[in-house]
Write a structure and sequence with these properties.
Layout lengths: L2 H22 L9 H16 L2 E2 L6 E2 L2 H24 L3 H4 L5 H24 L9 H31 L3 H9 L3 H7 L2 H11 L2 H42 L6 H15 L4 H13 L9 H4 L7 H7 L2 H10 L7 H6 L21 H16 L10 H11 L6 H11 L2 H22 L23
Antiparallel strand pairs: 1-2
Bound molecules: fe (ii) ion.
Amino acid sequence: MRREQIVVAVGLVYFLAALLFLWKVPPDFSGVSWGGVLFFAVLIALAEFLRIPLPRGKGAVSVTFPLGNATALLFGPGIATVVAGLATLDAQELSGKVKWHVVLFNRAQIGLSAGLAGVAYLALGGTPGTPELARDLLPALGSALVMFLVNVTSAVLFLSLRDRMPLWDTWLLYVRSIVPNYLGTAPLGIILAAVFNSVGYLGAAYFFLPLLVAQYAFKLQNDMRRAFLGTISALTAALDAKDPYTAGHSERVGELAARIGRAMGLPENRVELLRYAGILHDVGKIGIRDQVLLKPGRFTPEEYAEMKNHPVLSGRILANAEAMGEVGRWVAHHHEHWNGQGYPDGLTGERIPLEARVIAVCDAFDAMLSRRTYKESLPWEAACAELRRCAGQQFDPQVVDVLLGLAADPGFRQSMVTAVETAQAQAAMALEGGRARPGPPANGSGGGGGLPCS
Ligand SMILES: [Fe+2]
């Protein structure tokens, strides 16, 4: 069965499971406060509207979770399933930009998470409809835990199938970063439900609206960060436009560097900066003259010297971006060699920043797998063998070991080869019509990124 069909099947299974759940545990409308249900549905929709997307589609942070939990405690499993499932519909889903089976999956899994949380609350002895903080704290926390587990395991399963990524990697990439948000807001469910139960609408609003305002402030800050990331994309697009043969190379180096950083146990904020460094490592080529950067023949010594200046230019460009931290220093050294024979400073071993050593390996690996006008691509095994051969000379052997460990995974290999082939097919189409760079081998180690050691 193809991946797309599997993902569609998972969406349908979840949707049917949610319908089955509602059939077995139907909403109990007897004596329910419709105003209360509407009040919580509006709060959930508002929280969802103000949610803060994390970088690279890694989920989102919001206060929807405790609201869904409070709905389960106050109105029971059936109503919570419907309210949480429908009120969390987001703008993208409503606009039709999200595939129908993904919408079904999202609605069903969020509804089921809230519904099963309601079942857990009752099963653990929680008071139906009128929760109190002291009396019902443990059943409420138990229900929050069930909600968290159902939500997270469903998301990991779905994303792992969708992206053909191992479950553990999926957890690390998409889910781990939102766990603190979940755990931190989990107790708010019972507090909010108890306040609503004893004080009513105004009490719940006074309690919860400041949280929404805080979320809004974070959203504004996050929007600024996204604008900053947009600027990064513009820089790489400018470079790709200048040299379409390397289009997509920078993004792939960034992705690969982040994966290696994560596999080496670097903290997530450093992994994120490493990813930016990988994307921007060659941005200094913007400052290299076209007749040098795109030269089909061999460089003169002066041209080679100009080309070798690009890491320094990359470093200078990024040194002024405060949010980039040490990224400028890392990219300035991405052509240093472990044995000291690189440039610009001829640094050796661990004197080279770790992140620069990671980028050097990723740069070379992607360059070897890519076809250029002056060389054919190397087969996967040959590229791995070349890295192994150069470990300890050009490359940090530990970084090479980590990459080769990742490269042994068939899923990793498939995704990387596909990314390279797709980008090259797009570049070839873009170059049709006479923009292609004809001619013999150009420029050796200064141009095409870190090439295999000689
Ligand atoms: Fe470079």
